[in-house]
Design brief:
alpha/beta; four-stranded mixed β-sheet; globular
Length: about 350
């Protein structure tokens, strides 16, 4: 059990996140595939992802132990993913923890040594996991997290901060002086002036404590609904075509369906030249519907919240979901190793 003493000032700074941390979601998805959890909640998710899982990618599981999960997958989890940084504080701390616990394998030892082939292999594995286990579920995960956060806010309004803390999750208790987290690790922790952030997480199976550089995060399972795939988009709705024109509407739908789509793939999808696809992307970008990132000679396109909500709203007629992650959102503080 982890015990955290909270002052009145700590309680005032306390936050419950209302948007997902997809770095955590990606890492926790790996934990489910590694069978480090007995949770039944993501059973359907695990079955779907396992169907396309490459057994050669099982080396990812070398990064997990019963006490630690890798908490440095932020870059790999973005819609326009970039290579992980093994020189970051969180990555070096995690590999150091593996070494201290005697859990280093040839693969993780090569990662600790910065071997290029090992780093390339990990990036390839994480790309595959993101594409199969995260990208098709982003909107559902966003909805689950936003709902859990809204429920926490309602409990504050009804029962105050005490009522909210004691209703977040059965493994979280508040005795009026200390926050008690039912974890595998036993420790007394101090915030040292850092804000405490509760992060509801769709793929979490238990409480995880992650001390960050500028804050302390408690990851807890969001218990709202099952993890199902986002609705399939097969083509632009008539309303979207009327608004943008047939080709640009199809271009926006293509980017929403496949975040990080390159200009070349966009051209192939639309059946136009690369120059024409680039022009359509420029119009969508200037309209605030997509964002563009250049990685060397390759250009990747990802939908903004406005673009995503516009596509889904025109298709379903429902109100857009709140809290969709923006491509331009600031990076999270660098992590240390997360403890379970």
């Amino acid at each position: 059990m982890i015990r955290i003493s909270l002052s009145a000032g700590d309680l005032e700074r306390l936050q419950v996140a209302d948007v997902p941390d997809f770095g955590y979601e990606l890492a926790l998805g790996g934990a489910h595939l590694a069978d480090r959890t007995s949770s039944r909640k993501p059973a359907a998710w695990r079955l779907e992802v396992a169907r396309s899982w490459n057994p050669d990618h099982n080396r990812l599981f070398d990064l997990y132990t019963n006490f630690y999960i890798p908490a440095f997958f932020d870059r790999a989890a973005r819609p326009t993913a970039s290579a992980i940084d093994l020189h970051s504080l969180s990555a070096t701390a995690h590999l150091r923890d593996l070494a201290r616990s005697g859990a280093l394998t040839p693969f993780t030892r090569a990662l600790a040594d910065g071997h290029p082939d090992a780093v390339s292999t990990l990036n390839r594995i994480l790309t595959g996991l993101r594409m199969t286990g995260l990208d098709p579920y982003r909107r559902r995960i966003t909805s689950v997290v936003a709902t859990a956060s809204a429920q926490a806010g309602a409990r504050v309004a009804l029962g105050g901060i005490d009522g909210m803390l004691n209703s977040l999750h059965p493994s979280i208790r508040w005795d009026g002086r200390r926050l008690l987290l039912n974890t595998l690790v036993d420790a007394d922790e101090s915030l040292e002036g850092r804000p405490l952030i509760f992060q509801p997480t769709a793929l979490a199976a238990r409480i995880i404590f992650d001390p960050l550089v500028d804050s302390v995060t408690v990851i807890y399972p969001a218990t709202v609904g099952a993890i199902t795939r986002d609705p399939e988009l097969y083509g632009p709705a008539p309303a979207l075509v009327s608004l943008l024109g047939a080709t640009r509407a199809a271009a926006l739908v293509a980017v929403v369906r496949a975040p990080a789509l390159t200009t070349g793939r966009l051209a192939t999808t639309l059946g136009v030249s690369a120059a024409a696809a680039s022009r359509h992307a420029a119009v969508l970008r200037e309209s605030g519907l997509i964002a563009t990132v250049r990685n060397g000679q390759t250009v990747h396109h990802a939908p903004t919240r406005l673009g995503t909500d516009l596509v889904y709203s025109s298709t379903t007629g429902n109100d857009p979901e709140r809290g969709t992650e923006r491509m331009s959102a600031p990076e999270q503080p660098r992590r240390r190793s997360a403890r379970v």
